Amino acid sequence: MSLSTLQSGMYGTVQALLKEMSGQSAPQTGVMRWSLHRNLEDNPSCSVSLIRALITELDKLIQIHETRSYTHTIPALHTLSYVVMQSGVMIPTSVYQKLYECLMKLLMFPSPYSSVALSTLRGIKMEMTTPGSSYLRRVTAEQNLMNERFTLQEKVFVLADPAVFSAPLEAAVRTHLEESSFFTDTMEKNVVLHVLQTGLGTSCQSSTLAQALKALGEQTTKTYFQEVVQAVEKSETQGAGGCADYLNRLQRIYKDILTASKEEQTELDQSSVFNTAMPYPEINFHLWRDKEDLWNLLANFAACCASKSNAFDEEQKDKRDSVRSVDGGIERELKESDLDDVAPPAPSNPAPTLTRRNAIKTTKAPQKLFFMRDKMDLHPESPNKDRRRHTARVVVLGDDRVLGRVTRAYHSIRERESKCHILTEKVNLRFYYIPVSDEELSLTPAEGPCQMESRLSLASLLGRVDPWYNSNINSLGAAISKLAGTQSVHKEPKKPSAFLLDTLCYYLRCGTRPLKLPLYSVKVRRICVDDVSMLDVHSLVWLTALCVQMTRSGCDVIKEMFVSHLEAVIPEFRPLIEKSSQKQGVRPRKTRAEVFGSVLSVSYTEIALSKRGVEKGNTPMTCGVVIASEPAAVTSSRGHLTVKFHSVNPENNKTIRTQEISIRATQSLTLSVCLDKDSRCTYGNIQRVEISPCLDPGCSIWSKSERELLFSNDVDKVLYLPVNTFSGVSP
Q: Looking at the record, which segments are called Disordered (predicted)?
């Protein structure tokens, strides 16, 4: 196929991808993107043509900048970054230069498009001076390939809500995710092959190099892997001036590998590019049954990282003590140039260690973390850079209810860290959300009573803010919901499709920009009663990311976190609400005996157009109250709460916007309150509800410069739940 025909075909593919995203069948775009990446893995030589097609599309977006049409910017930039990272071929300097100029022009776009363009620009600049570095860093972190330069580790935890995942669905998803298992003995070979192919281009005979690496022993392969890592690190330190030295060093490593291989080289097709597709990271799938599961997983991960790092330090110290090394039967003396690149041994810390008697046979994860703290403090994270942290990527599967559990767990972690700083200093926590529902998928909440609305309201919110998230991740959730039915149809075990695993990995690698959902503190005052039958476990309560304090008959205070919505319903009027929902659009006939609700005393600060609060009080006649959080990313202004008062009589319905509100039942009736539409978080006999923004309990773990700004009005002290998306919007 001619170059012009190939490039024209790639441009047509990009146009179809972006057109589908803007159309009615947006969820199908996830399949198109996956097919495009799959084809690119099978034919790496098409990467340059695809990059040229994306540059053409970006130039087109720049020309129509005045029309303020930015929908295609995020998909084009993320596709571009992903192609450059895993291409495996040398990209011509002329293409890089044109791409650099194009990205510089995108910086004039509004946020978040300019922010994503800036992030892409930084990655492109690094690839221009050090080809293959982004692939090396990503694979090294995901596969936990310990080396002297990159000691950071990553772990992926997938937590599924048992309320959504039935036994067949759990088995089907677990089967698909188990495909991420692989043999780690080929990881170093793939990294070496990819970096040499990308850096040397046509001077690297890919098939011959792959054959030579296959013939080398494991220890010898690790030696060359370390040399490649050292070359990348040195080039990044030197910047653009070290590019020539970097390529010369790659050329020397390439020749050494061919010389060291004892297997006779056969005649192979030298024009082909060897496939070095990015391997899957290790994925740990769990059903989230206990509220302490997340803390235990993070504690085990932090302790494991400390143990591996200390063991690796001991191994490297033993190697440095010897002047000569034997690798795979090849004995050679380290050259002075190699010794310069080897990091000096970590200084020993004479701090005394505690000795314990063998009295504790089993320990819980939090206890184990405290026991490992001394070792974690002794280990330097990086021999030549500031102390950095490992990364725990937590992917939650479910509907609004599972995000409520995430919110409570996240607030608990922040609260614990405010008292004792352990996890925060060592682990970066990243949240990812894939909406999966046990009901019929409806990403657009229906108009009507809250108990009839979809539990995927946050998925709908994220999809509106980030169309690329809607196209790829919301469509993935719909595919996951159908896995159980697909498994039951086929009697014989069917080979799992790679769509789920590939899309999940794409989300983990490119979904790096968090969208912050504000949390609110709720104080609920409960009346003490003997008749527990008043508890209504079927009522639904709406609120986005709230911190709850409940006071029961005296001094019983409960603190919780929940995410989606809060609904307060008068149980005695629930039949009227359900009857009214069946007659939507039909105005009920008034009679003197009709009751439209109970009197509630409401006090709130209304948000005016001037963004100034106005104190107001009201006593509406209502059957229930629905409170939904509207983040700043959706409102394009100040985040607020939308409060809807529902009555059987539509004339008495009212909607207000506020950030603080207090609701009190003035008659003998009480409220039933439920969090996140989750019957497991339902509380009855409530007389008073007070809602206000929740402050971050982890302010004490901020850095010194951040604490100095604590008393400034510009510092936002509200706690947010960060959910990673492709665009990200800050509050």
A: 314-357
